[in-house]
Every structure is written in C-alpha cells, then in structure tokens.
Write a structure and sequence with these properties.
It contains 5 helices and 8 strands. The protein is of the alpha/beta class. The protein has one domain: YbaK protein (Alpha-Beta Complex). The strands form 2 sheets. A 5-stranded mixed β-sheet has the order 4-2-3-5-8. Strands 1-7-6 form a 3-stranded antiparallel β-sheet. The radius of gyration is 15 Å and the shape is globular.
Length: 170
Amino acid sequence: MTDKPDRVLLPAHLFLDRLGLRYERLSFPPETEKGAANVARALGYRERQMIKTLIFETDRGEKSLVMLGGDQTAISGKLKKALGSRNIHLASPESVLKTTGYVIGSIPPFSWQPAGFRTFLDQSLLSEDILGVGTGQWGEEILLSPENLVIASSAQVVNLTERDNPNTPA
C-alpha cells in the first residue's frame, strides 16, 4: 500500500488492509468528469485498466456486480448466461445506493457485499498488469493486481466480452 499520512482511509482501504492485499492509492482531481475514460486520462492509464463496476438486476430481484474494463461492453447473451436469467437490466441509481451504500460513479467492488452476493469479472482483464477501481469517494482510486482484485471481490471470472470464446470460468 502507498499512503500519505494526511489521507483518510476509506472502508475499501481498510478491507484490503485486513486481507493483507497489496494495493496503491492514487488521487485525481474531484472535478474530473465521471467515467472510466476520464479517470484513466487523469491518472495516465489505459481505459481498459480502469474498471467499471455495474450492478445488474434479474427478474427474480437478484442483484450482481459486474466488472468490465472502461472500454468494454458486455455481450448480452454472455451476461445473461453468467447471471442465469434472460431478463436482466442495470439497477436504478436508487437501487444501487440501497444495495451497495454508494452512489454510481465510484462503487468499490469489495467491502460491502453481503454473504452470497455474486460478483463477476471479465476474464480478459486477467491479462492486465494493474487495474484501477473506485473507493466509494470520487477522486480516489485503488490500483491492484487482477489476482488481488479477484481475491478481494470474490469474483467469478467469466468471459463477458469476447464473442468467440466460451462463457466458462477462466
């Protein structure tokens, strides 16, 4: 972990510290426009490396976290297969706040999930050296290895973005 003494530790930092996982803290100007592409530009990384944390809901009311690179879009059929439902949609901002405790824009992919909550990471992201995730506070980012992200988030690694590859866990 890299830390400056005057910076507050957020729940996401404390969670990673409890797990003993290595990460780096970076800050970007809070006036940066929302979006992974803008965070990537502000921090000097590729858009693929800045993770979008999306909450999807099924017709059964189950909510799941889906992590994609900032430049990626999930293939609908692969996402439906992973979530086990043909009827899925992005959760509303109100539902996201109620589910995660965070507003859309900087949802950390760990530290808030109840037992049994399902989280998915696109398998192509395992080939990146470093990934950036939100902390729950706009202007603060956590950088960590894909392996540590999988551990911290208890993510199931699946293909959500590559049409010609199967949807099986990596």
